[in-house]
Amino acid sequence: MPLFSAKLLAIFSLISHESCYLWKPGLMWLHLVSDAVIALSYFSIPITLIYILRKLVNVPFNRIFLLFAAFIIFCGTEHLIDIWTFWHPDYWISGYIRALTAVVSLITAITLTSLIPQILALPTPHKLEEEMQNNKQKEEFLRSIYEGVTEAIFVIDTTKKDEFVYESINPVTEQVMGITSEQIEGKTPEEVLSNDFALSVKERYSQCLLAGESITYEECFKLTENGEDSWWLTSLKPLFNELGEIYRIIGTSVNITERKQAEAQLRESEERWELALLGTGDGIFDWNITTSQAFFSTQYKEMLGFSDSEVENSYQGWRNLVHPEDVDLAEATWKAYLNHENPQYRAEFRLLCKDGSYKWILARGMAQWNQNGKAIRMVGSHQDISQRKAAQAEIVRLNQQLEARVTRRTAQLEESNRRKDELIESEQSAKAEIKIYEDIVENIQIGLCIWQMDNIDDITSFRLNNINPAASQMLGVDIQSYINQPIEECFPNLLDAEHIGIVEAYAEVVKFKQAKDLGEFSYGDERVPTSWFKVTAFPLPDNLMGVAFNNVGERKRMENALAESERLYRNVVNSVKEVVFQINKTGIWTFLSAAWNDITGFSVENNLLEQFTNFIYADEEKIKARELFESVISGEAEFFQYEFRILTQNENFRWLEMYAQIEHNSNNEKTGVYGTLNDVTERKQTEAVLEARADELIQINLILLQTTAELEKRNKELDQFAYVTSHDLKAPLRAIANLSEWIEEDLQAALTPDTQRQMDLLRGRVYRMEALINGLLQYSRVGRIKTEPETVVVAQLLAEIIDSIAPPQDFTIEIVGEMPTLVTERIPLQQVFSNLISNAVKHHNRSDGKVTISIQELEEFYEFTIVDDGKGIASQYHDKIFVIFQTLESRDKRENTGIGLAIVKRIIEESGGTITLESQLGKGTSFRFTWLKQRM
């Protein structure tokens, strides 16, 4: 510190340049002006360098530029210090500035020396121009591919926030959208598309930005002049810059309208086929839900490899065949249908085959319901859909493989995007353009082969130059290893007689520089699986040719399946006796099966496109049929059924029964009705015969009613006669009885015992005569006088009868078992029980006897048994006792009319029952009779 201070003070002992006596004014100003100009120049140079560095971000070696700027600043500072020391002798400060300048100069020299190899590696203007020319050729090559493919390709600029700008479109996109590239490039979707379409595509572009990866989707829109729907499979792929930001989106669209139309036609064909074969299919089942028993057709079991006896015909037998992973879903599906949660039963599951494998089955069925809405039976079909499931699995696998390839290619592209671009701004733009075309070629959803024709006069001189990943995928074989190989090595069968024309067309494309659409053709060899391809060839520079192709094998298979489905549908429909028809919304036949000709004699071809009501004979039937048709078309009814007459070609009348229901297309739009026409002429003729028979029955019934009325009149007259007769007969008898009692009272003192006995005998005969008259009256009324059925509690009825009979105190009447409750006529049943029980008590030989009443329930009857332990009845009298007026004992010994059992037998037989007797002398008597459970 003291040394530094001493040096600093020493400055003041020095003299300045101005004080030097040798300096002349001219020399002095020469130095001053020169130093000032040099200093200003030095300071302007680093300012200019810094400005250039700020404008050119990618300038290499920016560190050496900064060191060079510092070196120049220090040099300029030295010249300013020289001007200062001209008047002020501050030489130590000047020395320090020079020392710093020396340090910076040394660092700059060392750094510049180390950068010599890199500086020498910079391209010369000639080399830079040559590289730019190569890039231009490559750009033209990729642009030829970009403009020559048959798929729509577009590039979107995403650098502006929340805005998508169309940067470029290829000619196919121009043709599809009906707009030129000049009209769309630099514009947003809102400026060139309709509002709805613009919103839709912007949503897709935003999804791609948010996902940060490729997305693929199907879209439908109207681009054609006739307004028909056009289906496209579109893929969007984002491109990233060095900062990992998305700056472009590349889109490719493939027209899949034909495939969609084929799918729609196939679906409609399947729906028509299912309609004609409702409830049938490859395998048939019939399941009794109540008993769990089931019927499986032979074809059902053979589908799984089983014989007819190897599958249990029950619900459990079916359940044992269902794959364990599918059981719960399969059961839940049919339960939901039976619980009315789903309108139809349709399920897919796997069934076990005899060889241990599983087949995918499509199950469909319909249930039969009872009056309570409960399912009691289900009938349906099982269809083998294993091939369809395998195809779906293969599609999933191919999609996954495609996604893996896209991911791999995307990773490669991202790695390539991270490399620094060392060329000038124009070169960067060219490389970016080339990069876009390369991405398009790599990620386009079509196969692309580039061929080099070495000898333009030799069609066999084609050599495979390049191929994109989609080509290998569509060919079904990896073809990358055959690059630079001749055409006969890559695709040997292209040179055979069948395909040589294709190679000749390739040569014409190269010679005449004109693209060709080669259409569709089939190709296959030992490596490439045989399939159908749609091919377009287009010229490229330097005798190169591009071939863009799509594998249309799946579409061809769908077309064949559609044709086969149509053939099967027509065979089935033509084999049905009923006429299967379709009518459009205006009432015109659009389809009639062959049965129309069999029933009416008219030609199907001649009757199509005619109003269906033209064939209905009666005008009122035409009007009614039209009203029913309009009700279904308007949605008021789901179906209609109607019978009408037609006049056949042979001028014979036929009755037809029409059943029709509404028909919808794949978009759920009403297209008309479909259904069947059934010839019911024979049924109508039978109904006419039955109506005639019914008229005859009505006449017979009138006769029967007249006869019945006559019989009722006779019965009333008979009842009146019986009543008058019984009244006229019983009146004298009552007078005799009263007279005998009066005589007894008058002659009480004079009556002898014998006279008293005779008087009692007289009144007994009177009472017997009166009982006989009452019995005859009851017997005559059996079966003629009807009463309304009522609820009869038999136990209560028996108690009332026993109470009215009043058996002796020691006499026992036992009721065994629970007596039923009947709905029947009360009085006849009461008469039967009363007669049988009173006879058992009255004719018993002991006062302490026993009567047992029991019951046995039969299918339609109750069987009542009345057993006593009395003296019994000899076998020779078993039939006699049911005859009127027949008694087993003298009437003088025991009062009896002999009518009671005859009345009992007649009542029981009139009621539809029977009565039997079992008895032996000394062993009691048993009467059994049956009584209907419920009177009809």
Automatic annotation (TrEMBL):
Source species taxonomy: Bacteria, Bacillati, Cyanobacteriota, Cyanophyceae, Nostocales
SUPFAM superfamilies documented for this protein: ATPase domain of HSP90 chaperone/DNA topoisomerase II/histidine kinase, Homodimeric domain of signal transducing histidine kinase, PYP-like sensor domain (PAS domain)
Full protein name: histidine kinase
Record bears the keyword Hydrolase: no
Residue intervals of the PAS domain: 138-212, 269-341, 565-636
EC number, as in UniProt: 2.7.13.3
Pfam families, alphabetized: ETR1_N, HATPase_c, HisKA, PAS, PAS_3, PAS_4, PAS_8
Any GO BP: regulation of DNA-templated transcription
